[in-house]
Amino acid sequence: MMELVCPAGTPAALRAAVDAGAHAVYCGFADETNARNFPGLNFSRPELAEGIAYAAARGVRVLVAINTFPRAGDQAIWHRAVADAHAAGAHAVILADLGLIAHAAEAHPGLRLHLSVQAAAANPDAINLYAEAFGIRRVVLPRVLTVDEIAATNREIEVETEVFVFGGLCVMAEGRCSLSSWATGLSPNMNGVCSPASHVAYAEVGGHNEARLGGLLIHRTPKGAPVPYPTLCKGCFTAPATPSGPAQTGHLFEDPVSLDATELIPKLQKAGVTALKIEGRQRSRAYVAQVVRAFRAAVEAADAGAPMPAGLLAKLTEGQAATTGAYAKTWR
Amino acid sequence: MTRFRRPSAPSRLPLPPLAAQAAGFALTRLLRRIARRKPAILSRLGPHGGARFLIDLRDSPLLLLMEPGARRITAHPRRAVPRHDAAIRGRLPAFLAMLHGVEDGDALFFSGELEIAGDTSAVLALRNALDDAELDLTEELAAIPGRPFDGWLRRASGFAARQSGLALSRQEAMR
């Protein structure tokens, strides 16, 4: 059966994921070593140890994401995070930075290393380099590959692959996107925050709801309509009229929708994917429980050759709409 | 996700004398009990522990101001909006569903059931801290009078939840 890797932003969400049928849970420390460094989220060292004990007692593995890029001069913060995750009994650490990977491989030879999606390793040559040089055991593939490209990659690599199947959709070369930095000075790569909440403002203006990021208007929706979280890559923008055409308003890169690749699970299995990842460490334990339960049923169905359940989770998605993202390359 | 029914409009009903003071006293007592039993809520709030949260239950005649750092909740008539750093607006069923882990806070927000304004960081911190706390308001209320009233209160809460459709207990406890 394919492994289901589930998110936990809090100890309560970790327990919810374990109880709902996760095979593995990923989480991170409450600091900038973690690409989901949001207010009120994440784990202290004692909370991580307790979470690992809870999961281990039920046969579930815990992976610790230390997937931001260390600041020059402050690498010790990231080194300490790897050491503490190892000491707490993490099954693996999920890393992105080349220097941190080299440090972990050298200082913690017994620790299993996974390559984060933030490393944006999107071809066999890059993945094989990480495997041969540092002993990376699994790569989380960027959300820009088609199923055929994933199958082709798996034919040329020895390490396991993990792909996202549900949740927030990043359409950029992950680890290299600077949109959030441009608007706010903070980024997922260095600070662990894409569109940091400290720079987000919602307001009701003239019968509309407005969502701004760093003072920039990203969404305006009629009152009562869904209001997406203001991320620049999913923003709605107006291009002024030109001599060749009228003004146009629309989403520049991607609509504010979430990934739902449930229907593609059998194809991903056939493509040689080892693990399916659910995004959403910033979501509640209610979300985690519902999504994990639904995907556990889906991977069991795939294992039995049964049809995939569909449309169960639409209400939990951003914009309350879903896409199969790059896997089928139907978006612009 | 549940689409919550729009109830009648008690927010327009006249308030009995001292209603705001009585509500504030009772809610502050409840908040202090929860803060004692779940200290992780305050630590998760971090730098937002001193924020003032306006809780606007659209179906209530009163606005609530929650100050976690001061461990205080005060109630205010709608005509006198207190100073606040962040506001969360919605109907009581949506708040209870989020608090008890029945519904996801983001999903309630995406669907427009809940709206926020002001300091978004503080609201996220509060939402995440409360979600991790796995609160059960029925159990918290039942513990205040102690035996033998706790059993009666749990039964009454279960009956009220079935009649109203409100999430009056923690989701995991309802299974």
From TrEMBL, chain B:
SUPFAM superfamilies: SCP-like. Transmembrane segments: none annotated. Residues 1-22 form the signal peptide. It comes from the Bacteria. This is SCP2 domain-containing protein. Residues 33-131 form the SCP2 domain. InterPro entries: SCP2_sterol-bd_dom (IPR003033), SCP2_sterol-bd_dom_sf (IPR036527). Keywords: Signal. Pfam families: SCP2.
